[in-house]
Amino acid sequence: MARAPELVLTGWMDSDAELLAQPRSALDAALAGSGRSLREWRLNRVEASGGGRLMGFDVDLDLEGGGTETALVFLDTGERPVDTDRVRLLQRPEGGPPVRAWVYPQDPYLPALPAATVPEAAAVLLARLGAPLPGTPALEVLSYRPGKRAVVRVAEGGRDRGYLKIVQPELASHIAALHEAFLGAGVPVPRVLAWSRDGLLLLEALPGAPAASVIDRVCGSDAFIDELDGLRRLVERVPWVEAARPGAVERRDWYRDALCEALPARAARVEAVFARLERSLARHPEPAPTTVHRDLHLDQVLVDRDHPDRIVGLIDIDTAGLGDPRSDTGGLLAHLAVLAHWHRDHDRAEAESAVRLGEAILARSATRGRSHPCSRRTCSRTP
């Protein structure tokens, strides 16, 4: 693949904030020579990326030969290692690390993504993985974290055939090994049907529905809490020696600084909250590590559709490993608190269900000494 030319940007300052506020020049440069010109843009997302920011923009484009189309353009100011042949480098006017630009799905950190999102190309990929289909698959991108991962549902002949997970190439073998270890310990995670070193894994489709979709049916169920406890005990017994991906508590300094930057008027309150967190952590020494999921929430837990108090699956174990055995409870409670806050103005019943379930989980965890000190008041009722 020929390297895209480097372009020098004009019309914006060096800071990420200025680039975010005035992206026109960078977006124009990212699209230069493509036969498409920028008409309008809308901010889609902003994420942390290797000491910088990854900014995504939904753009409306005019085509050189007539007509229009939409696209998703990313500008990355971070300094993670990347194959520069896969990005357009935009030089800053005053020097410094260049901005990396690309148009979805040409994600430079996920080289398997472009083929995994085109039906004909995905069919070839599946055949190479040893899982050919009789027809052309129907694809649905379920999630996409730029530079990190994507999940694509694969259907053919009216049936789900599995899920393609696209990750950074160096993580594929690690994730495949995690799935094997979890399955060996009796944890109901998907089997890895095939994987490749360019960052592609084919996972089996598990039965069941996300517990989040039936929260109103499980929020008052002691049987569901029993199932959650049993699931976490299974996870704790998975034989694993590598550390889990750093979680919110381990990265609390980053979150504090990011919140202060995003909410300068509330910086004093943010500092006070984090100071209280530090005091709580100091009073509760971390126990011996066990295997943890690290990103446990109700969308990761699959339940029987007819009997939702029965857990039938656990997904997205990419971040699992050794860690604080209380962290999964803390993460689960934090997600429930956000869910309650999110729904409180437009779906009071859903919000109340999240609060009830959070209180039940916290009460059960407190009796067994499993709750994280940072989660003590996480699921208190929102005003």
From TrEMBL:
Pfam families linked: APH (PF01636)
Domain Aminoglycoside phosphotransferase: 176-352
Entry protein name: Aminoglycoside phosphotransferase domain-containing protein
